[in-house]
Amino acid sequence: MSRSLRTAVTDAVRNAVPFLVITGLWIVVMLAVYGVFLVTKPDDITYGPWVHASVFAVPSVGFLGHVLQQAVSGRS
For the chain, what are the domain ranges? Predict the structure, then answer.
């Protein structure tokens, strides 16, 4: 590998690792929120699919915001 290619690969990996760690953390947060939702759900109540999907809405906003931030900062 040439020096400039090696530098480019190193920079790409260095930028990707924090993004992948944060992505993993967001997945854990979304699953934890959904787990709390399921554990605290009363037995005599049945929720529709839209309620289950809405549990992922709040963490997904943060996750998608981070993805957008990475996409924008990667272009500049």
Answer: 3-75
How far is residue 39's CA from residue 61's CA, in Å, rounded to a whole number?
Answer: 23
Mean pLDDT of 50-58: 80
For residue 42, give both structure tokens.
């009363």
Euclidean distance between CA atoms 52 and 40, whole angstroms: 13
Tokens encoding 66: 């981070």
User: 72 pLDDT band (50/70/90 cuts)?
Assistant: confident
Q: Where does residue 56 rank: exposed (0-12), middle (13-18), buried (19+ CB within 10 A)?
A: middle
Rounded to two decimals, the pTM is 0.58
